[in-house]
Write a structure and sequence with these properties.
Helices cover about 40% and strands about 15% of the residues. It is of the alpha/beta class. Strands 8-19-18-17-16-15-14-9-10-11 form a ten-stranded mixed β-sheet, sandwiched between helices. Strands 3-2-1-4-5-6-7 form a seven-stranded parallel β-sheet, with helices on both faces. It has a two-stranded antiparallel ribbon with strand order 12-13. The radius of gyration is 26 Å and the shape is elongated.
Length: about 525
């Protein structure tokens, strides 16, 4: 699914009009779809009191249609109008016929009616302004939004839902008006908009869902990134023949871990196994192997020599070089630490030097995380010395070190930066964080819909690296392995969040959910194929 700018959405709306799909038809479709999605979010609609904030334009019109459908489904609906609707607004007639309560902000002295409603309603749906607004909010409008904000502070259980985008968020840039609400859910119409994934706007959109409003598919393949959706993820899942053996599903070699970070190799190896890799081998010092073998019983081990307790000796490189041709993927960096000898080892494995006397063995496909990235960041022009068959999985801090930027600069335009550096470095980039971005050197890109605070904890990135490596070993190309890995990992996080909440979730909670997510995707794919 494409991510469309405001201008592209306008072009698409014009195309719809030319093909006979009128604005009124789109509005009816949008309102119905929003009502259905709001019903999913709010669960038992018949027990809900819902306040709609209705603006003067098309976003308000969509809200009126959604209000009508929710009323008909049994919800108690209230409409609070800011600005005048068109004199012959066809969306108002069904509202009047149903006698849905309407209040005009301009006639609500001191906003007393709004304040009273906010004390009792279960949810507020922001249908004030969509993608077209550009002027700063002021006066009465700003006061209205502030009342809603204060009500949310007093009653955190109130669910705030934005229709298409939160009012005051720039749909293209992600910039926000000071009055823009922090919402729990954004139900965006037809296609996601880039501003939903750019900070500071990305902090305010909550959980994003995209609803179909009957627009035809968009075809400018080169112009926009994709929104990572289950339809795509289902299409690239690796096949598994019942006649297969473990060699059929690929072999992953994991070089990870150090005394302070013993958990990292456990999580990375487990992530690879849980998505179906046939064989996972952990290359680690004997001292750490004796500890990890208690938990990691399904992996095989490649013991590495130590220079001192828990620290890989320089001669380990010879042991590793003899093994590389036995594996499809090398996952490297998780929890290795930044000791000088470790950094040197990483560089000697990964980076080629034209003046070297002896040629290095060909490396497997690479998934590089954490300390492997930190080692690269201190090497000038590292990308010219690294094989192109590589997936880099930096968090914003690691991306800042790789690029020489600040973290704030990285976060300013995550999508644009990931696409730029993927092309410049000729590497596949997974820029982790809320709405993880995946970018390929050829310009393809995907944006994850997941912004889960529960995933902001130690070790979840190690699990993700393992997931990507496991999918890559099963034959997916670099981009598909990276993007589907992000999707499966994110959905596993959503399952854990639904069960435990987003506080106290730990990385190992994700592991049993990974095969469940894959199972559900495959079951859905089989159902669709049968139909």
């Amino acid at each position: 699914m494409k991510v469309l700018t405001t201008a592209q959405m306008r072009q698409l709306e014009e195309s719809c009009a030319k093909s006979g799909i009128t604005t009124e038809m789109l509005m009816e479709n949008a309102g119905q779809a929003v009502a259905e999605e709001a019903g999913r979010i709010l669960e038992d609609i018949r027990q809900q009191q819902i306040l709609f904030l209705i603006g003067p334009g098309n976003n308000g019109g969509d809200g009126l249609v959604a209000a009508r459908y929710l009323h008909d489904a049994g919800a108690k609906v209230f409409l609070y109008f800011f600005g005048q609707r068109p004199a012959r607004d066809p969306m108002l007639k069904p509202i009047r016929e149903r006698r849905i309560k309407r209040i005009e902000a301009a006639k609500d002295e001191s906003l007393d009616n709004l304040t009273s409603l906010l004390r009792s309603v279960d949810s507020v749906i922001d249908a004030l302004f969509g993608t077209g607004t550009a002027r700063p909010f002021s006066g009465l409008l700003l006061m209205m939004l502030d009342r809603v904000r204060r009500a949310k502070i007093k009653r955190p259980d109130i669910k705030i839902i934005a229709l298409d985008i939160p009012s005051g968020l720039n749909a293209d840039s992600g910039e926000v008006d000071p009055g823009c609400l922090y919402v729990d859910n954004t139900i965006t119409l037809a296609f996601p908009k880039p501003g939903l994934f750019k900070f500071p706007g990305a902090e305010r959109v909550g959980e994003i869902s995209v609803v179909d409003i009957g627009m035809p598919g968009y075809v400018e393949e080169k112009a926009t990134p994709e929104y990572l959706a289950d339809e795509w993820a289902k299409s690239v899942l690796p096949e598994r023949s019942p006649q297969a053996n473990k060699g059929s599903f690929g072999k992953v070699l994991v070089l990870a871990g150090s005394v302070p970070y013993i958990g990292a190799p456990y999580l990375a190896c487990s992530g690879a196994m849980r998505v179906g890799a046939g064989l996972v081998t952990l290359a680690v010092t004997g001292r750490l192997q004796s500890i990890l073998a208690v938990k990691l019983t399904e992996v095989t081990y490649l013991p590495l020599p130590e220079s001192r307790p828990g620290l890989i000796a320089p001669e380990a490189i010879k042991v590793l070089f003899r093994q590389f041709d036995q594996y499809n993927v090398l996952l490297m960096g998780c929890g290795m630490g930044q000791h000088e000898s470790v950094v040197k080892l990483i560089r000697n494995i990964l980076l080629s030097h034209p003046k070297a006397k002896a040629a290095k063995p060909k490396l497997p496909a690479l998934v590089l995380d954490a300390d492997a990235l930190n080692a690269l960041a201190t090497t000038p022009n590292w990308w010219t010395l690294l094989p192109e068959d590589a997936i880099l999985t930096p968090h914003p801090g690691e991306m800042a070190r790789l690029t020489g930027m600040t973290v704030d600069e990285v976060q300013l335009d995550r999508l644009g930066l990931a696409r730029k550096m993927a092309a410049e470095w000729h590497k596949t980039i997974v820029l982790k964080g809320a709405h993880t971005v995946i970018a390929a050197p050829d310009g393809r890109s995907q944006i994850s819909h997941v912004a889960n605070a529960g995933l902001a904890s130690a070790g979840t990135g190690d699990v993700l690296s393992g997931v990507i490596a496991g999918l890559l070993a099963q034959g997916l190309n670099l981009f598909d392995a990276a993007a589907s890995g992000v999707y499966i990992h994110g959905m596993a996080g959503e399952v854990v969040k639904a069960r435990l909440g987003d506080a106290g979730m730990v990385a190992s909670d994700l592991l049993p959910e990974l095969p469940q997510v894959i199972k559900q995707l495959k079951a859905s794919r089989r159902t669709e194929e049968a139909e």
